């Protein structure tokens, strides 16, 4: 799972235009519009792939610490059904819902 994400991230990074690659003049905002939104989309996908990778890495770390499968917030066991659906789940359904609400 982590290897797959690593591949996606490196592919996305390859697609991304290099920041300020040698162009010594400011780009026209209107002309750059379409290119910019394309880059923004790639950036958004890249961001979520990175975030998911972080979750997977954190899950792997929890396996190392033998705390995998326990909710990081309340410490209760995460039901196996949930771990099957989301092997990188760090929280039980209740805490994940609270966490998601906090982030918004
Ligand atoms: Zn919990």
Question: What would you say this structure looks like, in words?
Answer:
The structure is a single chain. This protein is mainly alpha-helical and 104 residues long. The protein is built from four helices and no strands. It has helices at 2-15, 29-64, 80-85, 93-103. Helix 1 packs antiparallel against helix 2 (29-64). The protein is elongated. The mean pLDDT is 82. Zinc ion binds at residues 71, 73-74, 76, 91-92, 94-95.
Please provide a brief summary of the model:
With 104 residues, this protein is mainly alpha-helical. It contains four helices and no strands. Helix 1 packs antiparallel against helix 2.
Question: Which secondary structure elements does this structure contain, and how are they paired or packed?
Answer:
Blueprint: H1 2-15, H2 29-64, H3 80-85, H4 93-103
Helix pairs in contact: 1-2
The structure holds zinc ion (ZN).
Beta percentage is under 5%
Count of discrete alpha- or pi-helical segments spanning 4 or more residues: 4
Major sheet, described briefly? none
Tell me, briefly, the overall form. Answer: elongated
Structural class by sheet pairing and helices:
mainly alpha
State the distance separating the first and last CA atoms. 27 Å
Number of strands: 0
Average pLDDT works out at 82
Unique ligands: zinc ion
Low-confidence stretches: none
What fraction, in percent, of the residue positions are helical?
Answer: 55-70%
User: Radius of gyration, rounded?
Assistant: 19 Å
Task: List the secondary-structure elements in sequence, H or E.
Answer: HHHH
């Amino acid at each position: 799972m982590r290897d797959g994400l690593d591949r996606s991230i490196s592919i996305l990074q390859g697609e991304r235009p290099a920041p300020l690659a040698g162009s010594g003049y400011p780009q026209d905002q209107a002309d750059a519009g379409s290119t910019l939104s394309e880059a923004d989309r790639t950036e958004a996908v890249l961001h979520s792939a990175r975030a998911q990778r972080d979750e997977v890495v954190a899950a792997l770390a929890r396996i190392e610490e033998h705390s995998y499968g326990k909710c990081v917030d309340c410490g209760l066991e995460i039901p196996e059904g949930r771990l099957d659906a989301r092997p990188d789940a760090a929280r039980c359904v209740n805490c994940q819902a609270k966490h998601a609400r906090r982030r918004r």
